[in-house]
Amino acid sequence: MSPFPLNCWYVAAWSHEVPSSGLFHRTILGQPVLLYRLQTGEAVALDNRCCHRAAPLHLGRQEGDNIRCGYHGMLFNPQGACLEVPGQTTIPREAQIRRYPLVERNNWLWLWPGPPEQADPALIPDNWACNHPDWRYVPDTHTWPVDWRLICDNLLDFSHLSYVHAATLGGSTEIAQAKPVIDRIPGGLRVTRRVRDVPPAPYHRRFADLPGNVDRWFIYEFLLPGILLMHSGLKPTGHRWDEMQGALRLESCQALTPETADSTHYFFMQAPGFGHTDPDLPAAIHASLIQAFAEDRAMITAQQAMLKLGPSPMVAIAADAALARFRQILQRALQAEGAPLPDDGGNASWA
Amino acid sequence: MSPFPLNCWYVAAWSHEVPSSGLFHRTILGQPVLLYRLQTGEAVALDNRCCHRAAPLHLGRQEGDNIRCGYHGMLFNPQGACLEVPGQTTIPREAQIRRYPLVERNNWLWLWPGPPEQADPALIPDNWACNHPDWRYVPDTHTWPVDWRLICDNLLDFSHLSYVHAATLGGSTEIAQAKPVIDRIPGGLRVTRRVRDVPPAPYHRRFADLPGNVDRWFIYEFLLPGILLMHSGLKPTGHRWDEMQGALRLESCQALTPETADSTHYFFMQAPGFGHTDPDLPAAIHASLIQAFAEDRAMITAQQAMLKLGPSPMVAIAADAALARFRQILQRALQAEGAPLPDDGGNASWA
Amino acid sequence: MSPFPLNCWYVAAWSHEVPSSGLFHRTILGQPVLLYRLQTGEAVALDNRCCHRAAPLHLGRQEGDNIRCGYHGMLFNPQGACLEVPGQTTIPREAQIRRYPLVERNNWLWLWPGPPEQADPALIPDNWACNHPDWRYVPDTHTWPVDWRLICDNLLDFSHLSYVHAATLGGSTEIAQAKPVIDRIPGGLRVTRRVRDVPPAPYHRRFADLPGNVDRWFIYEFLLPGILLMHSGLKPTGHRWDEMQGALRLESCQALTPETADSTHYFFMQAPGFGHTDPDLPAAIHASLIQAFAEDRAMITAQQAMLKLGPSPMVAIAADAALARFRQILQRALQAEGAPLPDDGGNASWA
């Protein structure tokens, strides 16, 4: 059994990471996964272990739509069925490797690690902003050496913007003081945080001329297993929330996929919108995000090291509301799968 | 429970390691410790974990006498009490971090990891030589990747000077052949080793003009948890031990503080005395000591690697008398605390 | 108890690795071994741990035929008996370190880790080609971070030459398709694989002018604990197997000695024979072998990483015949020693 929920769609890769010909591989939920494309362009995900002697298939080669193991030459088709065993004419009945349900949608390859018959593409979160002509962005993938739940926690409590990102994305303590509205939605939560009449964030100055204070908003869905779909922005202060004159809007899609219990693949983009005309803006937004992510990574890596030292008290505060509810949603998803409840990474107090 | 005795004063840092403003941190007995100074200069030791989500406090900042967590902004006073939680007005009753008793004396910061009410400053060993105008020295701190008890063993049997330090501090096999006198004193042992009519050690030639043989002495207290206070020296041979004409005396204070079960902070100094006039002598003595410590570290690191391979016989010899008695003193201290007896690092034969 | 068979001769070193004076050390079957030579040139193997405090003896020094521990100066003779303890005149009865039976034969030092009284030199495999004037070679030793049994598997199934070594030693799929003859012989197996009318291997072109196809043969004994003694070669196609006109013959001796459960010392040579006159040929053969070994190492290291992820199905195919039989021989050898059966490295299906 797994410490991760299995009946979810996980992002396995950006579309561009898997080439039109050749083998790509990545560890996902502790399992080695081979990703490649058929001659039609369709992407396929197989277990990256040959069923003969566990050699990784990515060390072999693609032959048309099939994969040849590079150790002893067994050949498999995209369904994982063995077609050839060198030196013999019969194929052992059990010579079969696992194929994962995989759907390519909006530039993400979504993989279903649970029972294939339960893989319903209708459940895939709608990351439309990754694939819309009005929203241009620089896509990126990082791998962080931390439990994916600690990054979920981070994304569910933006009060940290005032402290971790004081010099980048944040910039004022009002963000931490604002009370977000938290709504339960299918598969997760919607978090709405609005702050009025605050100084722009330091990173705003890289791409906008802002003489005075601004209003800022962060509205996002956070869905199992760790998908953030965010609509945020800023505009000159002093107007109604629905007046968008002079606003800069941003769309961000972020997906967390556990590599192992202690490491996480982080797929992300943030796109500026609303008809801006600066062709360098998407790259500038990406550069700012990278800088802020380095701040998060340093904090969460250090936090995980502390949690590894032994049990630590976890005093609940109001800012934990969203992350505590998401941890409950996650625990219930695991229970529903009959999975053993995982070590809670030090969070037993509000599990 | 801990494999280390807790009802002892451990050296946490040299005074100069903790700046007058700003956060210093170090792992001590497997626990993360934050060290900083109040505006009065008084040093404070707190658990380095925020009680909210275990973020390390050293990534936050000092605000006056208080500490602001760098993750979500909680503020703590020097007693570890929470003063502010961003986004709410009430402070949870249990929002409190641990404060360690800490005493600054003779340029060492002494920390008590046991129950605070038992922390009696009268029990602090007297490292007066670290703070005396006649004894000038270069202070230093190393961290070695070994069980602190193996360094205790090393310091309790100077027969190794003849072999490990043949080319540096030692120089003749007479040191190994000398029989030390061992006395039980409160908190540990006193070891007295005198050798007559031997060649000077190689390192003596770096700072003294010694035409003939010398007499050497090493007299030290070795106290729980691993504190060495040594009076040593050399002088031309052929005189009574209490005639100090032409002698070079040295005072050395050394303190071992486990970082973890397998690594040790080593605080040390060695000061030449008796009215020498060479201003470079303290640095030369320090350089020689560093060279010899590298010899010890190589040997003890290799020894620990051997002990990790599995149980090894440990044949007792006469030279073990002091280290065997100190191991007994340590075991009794642990028993008195009700601690489980630790794995003895392969030394069960004379535990 | 050990996961390795103990009643076998293991190669501990090439003769040239142990100098005529001075201390050499290596971990073998998880145990630290000291190797050195007496003044007569005879090689000796002792436990590399001093019986006093487990200091590694290789940090000490050779004094004539004896070894002085570098920590506290105890002196041992080549039988492992203690001759001197500094600071005392009596020698503790139990002051003795283990000596391993060691035989130097054909440029390999063979060590017996089992009960010394069972160490029969008549059981040493005959690596004559390592010591014959007609067969010149470059000797080498590598250490690979893998379970030695995975290298045994590799050497027992040359079908991998067609895939792993397609660009070096292999070159055609006929090698994988050929059916080897497998014979049980004392201590292991003989494997005979012949292929007719195939293109030369890529590496053949480095040292032979071969206008057309060739016949190739690989005949080897593979003996416990992991010794390969191979006679191979190639010649123009179209003749009987016993006609050696125009043939290039190669002798190869390879020995696997576990360093630990997950790392292996690999001693090897491959010598060209039959009166070739190119003085650079042995070095060219060695260079080709090194290149191919890098291919094997990459594959087996990746395979071991996969096996460490968890249980993997192992579908048996015809090509496994020799390796499966050798695993049985190994299991029976362990059972005969009363050893617990080791974790099979993922191979339980045909253990």
In short:
The structure is a homotrimer of 351-residue chains. Chain A has 351 residues and is of the alpha+beta class. Chain A has helices at 148-156, 174-177, 281-308, 321-336, and strands spanning 10-14, 24-28, 31-37, 43-47, 61-63, 66-68, 75-76, 82-84, 99-100, 102-105, 108-111, 140-144, 181-185, 188-198, 214-223, 227-236, 248-260, 263-272.
Question: Could you walk me through the main structural features you see in this protein, from its secondary elements to its overall organization?
Answer:
The structure is a homotrimer of 351-residue chains. Chain A has 351 residues and is α+β, with helices and mostly antiparallel strands. Chain A has 2 domains: 10-123, 3-layer Sandwich (Rieske Iron-sulfur Protein), CATH 2.102.10; 128-336, Alpha-Beta Complex (Naphthalene 1,2-dioxygenase Alpha Subunit, Chain A, domain 1), CATH 3.90.380.10. Helices cover 16% and strands 30% of the residues of chain A. The first copy, chain A, is built from 4 helices and 18 strands. Chain A has helices spanning 148-156, 174-177, 281-308, 321-336; strands at 10-14, 24-28, 31-37, 43-47, 61-63, 66-68, 75-76, 82-84, 99-100, 102-105, 108-111, 140-144, 181-185, 188-198, 214-223, 227-236, 248-260, 263-272. In chain A, the strands form 4 sheets. A 7-stranded antiparallel β-sheet of chain A has the order 12-18-17-16-15-14-13. Chain A has a 4-stranded antiparallel β-sheet with strand order 2-3-4-9, with no helix packed on it. A 4-stranded antiparallel β-sheet of chain A has the order 5-6-7-8, with no helix packed on it. In chain A, a hairpin with a 5-residue loop joins strand 7 (75-76) and strand 8 (82-84). Chain A is globular and about 80 Å long. At the A-C interface, loops of A face helix 3 of C.
